[in-house]
## 1
Amino acid sequence: MLRLHDTATGSVRPLELREPGQVSLYVCGPTVYGPPHIGHGRFTLVFDILRRYLAFSGLRVRHVSNVTDVDDKIIERAAREGRTEAEVAAECEAEWWAAMDALGALRPDDAPHATAYVPGMVALIADLVARGAAYETDDGVYMRVDAVPDYGLLAQQPLSSLRAGARVEATEGKRSPLDFALWKKAKPGEPQWRSPWGPGRPGWHTECVVMSLDLLGEGFDLHGGGQDLMFPHHENERAQAVAEGKDFAHYWVHNGMVTVGGEKMSKSLRNFSTIAELLASHDSRAYRLLVLRAHYRRPVEVTQETIADAERGLARLDGLARRLSLPDPLAAAPGGALVRAQAVAAAPSGVEEDAVDRFCEHMDDDLDTPGAMAGVFDLVSRAHAAADEGDEKTASRLGTTVAVLAGAVGLALRKGVAEVDEGTRRLVDERDAARRARDFARADAIRDELVAAGWVVEDGAGGTVVHR
RNA sequence: GGCGGCGUGGCCGAGUGGUUUAGGCAGGGGCCUGCAAAGCCCCGUACGGCGGUUCGAUUCCGCCCGCCGCCUCCA
């Protein structure tokens, strides 16, 4: 049974589902106004890993993640570039999915757009006004934060303390600095929808309430996002639901930030901050492994060094797959996610069930992926050792277990021997011939040539193997 | 100022009231190899500081120091 940290209670507790066997997961998605950065990549990977592990455990998962396509930043960029908001949003959204696909993240089952939910948001806001939990001002409609008795639950501090720390003054008409905009009245040229308060657009915090309840229903299981969304975004979502008397998310899951040089990554930093930049020079699986090697609630340091370290780990995994010609369970998995029972049944060599159990014990403990992966790397050593001793059966079983467990968290192993071109093939054959003839000068010259062309040259019992 | 989190061997990163104290990377030694590469074997007694509880604390409590995050848009 999975135990997860829940921000609302500040504790790790067993995951009790609304419906047995079925998990409903809502993850706050991107505001589409710019290229996705590695912080977006991390939260996507964290929740992809969570989702895959839930599926691996035999649960059915319904994963919803929104796209915020109306927002101040989109409006600003559209104005700056002389384009429409819809153009900017569409372009950035395409970029978003391309990056997430490249990271190997499964697409959500639903990806609702804020602009498609405006009437529902207007209805919610009108109801909040009718209940006295929201009020109209000159520039919009605001939520009364003190209408929610336990406001501050996710921020883990009481309203009075939040109010004391507020860094923003109350604007004209706002009754408390913490009151937040549900509806923004349109300024000339801005995108707008009709409402009882005149033309305007919804505030950011309302869409997730309406969309999550519409698609997943009351009392859905998990609501996730980055730790920087805990307050005020998630707090404010919850405030609206509570004021409406709705049963909202049962667990709040928040991932830690990406840091560079010990500080939260920001767009002003140079270090390959976008996913496209990262993937231009690194295997996307290395980033997944890097994310896996940190606990999801802790910060993860992303630098050339930590990425390179992850790449070396990946090479170790791939090296085993190459040596043992391991199957790729992910390629065969329906829907792209592995299910334990199926993966085990599909393995001709069998799997080391004890190792799978240990892996699951770590994962069940609030997604202890570093601990789980340590076990996987231990299996790699054991598989090699068995192969060294000529115990092919054991090597194969252990290796298959590695492939299954890596696959469980979305990591596909690559054998990397597939596309060796004709010319390279000929050089390799020539080198084998030279070695047989003990013409080592010739053999070494060919090896230098191959290495210069970017190949890794390994002489095995069956002759030379090259890979990249 | 308020709230939250963190500080483990060169680096990343689990874990535990005491005995044999994960795993990876890097490093050293050995085996294998024509030489390499890959792989295997061996090697590191670490837990921010000061007190306290205890027969015994890295692990529990308190204080202190340091770092980070949130309190504004942010994954």
Note: The two ends of chain A are 40 Å apart (CA to CA).
## 2
Amino acid sequence: MLEKIQAISDPTRFAILELLRDQEMPAGKIATHFPSISRPAVSQHLRILKHNNLLWERREGTKRIYRLRPKGFYDIYQFLEEFWDPRLQKLKAVAEKEEERKRA
Amino acid sequence: MLEKIQAISDPTRFAILELLRDQEMPAGKIATHFPSISRPAVSQHLRILKHNNLLWERREGTKRIYRLRPKGFYDIYQFLEEFWDPRLQKLKAVAEKEEERKRA
DNA sequence: CTCTTCTGTAAGTTCAAACTAACATTTGAA
DNA sequence: TTCAAATGTTAGTTTGAACTTACAGAAGAG
């Protein structure tokens, strides 16, 4: 989970996510939005985002079209909620004990 | 905000936050929980967490006691919710237009 | 005062991650 | 086939963040 959080915290990667929030886009077009960095660099960022379930990839001919994957964000969102909210913490602890009793 | 997200994504810093989730603690005692890294390293992590509003600091004699600051987490949580949820996005856009009309 | 305890700060090192340049792969078109 | 377009991958470089060592400062005890 920390890896996923780190994935979105990189400025370039977050800019990519912002770009894809409103519309899906092929890799090449994404790269044109970042003239200061090379296309391979963007490609590597896309791979990281994809591996962390923050993007979907689909192929159309030679193009690879990337699309935001909301669940990835929701996972982080939920993780933080659980960390932060002590009541949820306690509920989780109870659930885990329940689980243990079942296994025993 | 990205800086804050990056702050919690470091494994050592997140471990510090986990440690402080249940109880506040002076800097020295925090450091003892991380025998593999030096005390100054922990001190630097504490500074980063403090600067990002993830920790409170209070002084007692020569000790500096650190305590979790839930709002910091809530800020990230809310930021992701807004990014992720398209309905909230639209509501925000409407609110901003409203604001503009008032200024004009 | 002086000493000790607890801690932060500064300077320099190390290492992982982001980057570039060159090459490889895949797909469709002629 | 052959070529071009779109993209990924690899190898090596660069840069920034985490780290260590050494030093500095602040607060109480004696």
Note: Chain A is about 70% helix and 15% strand.
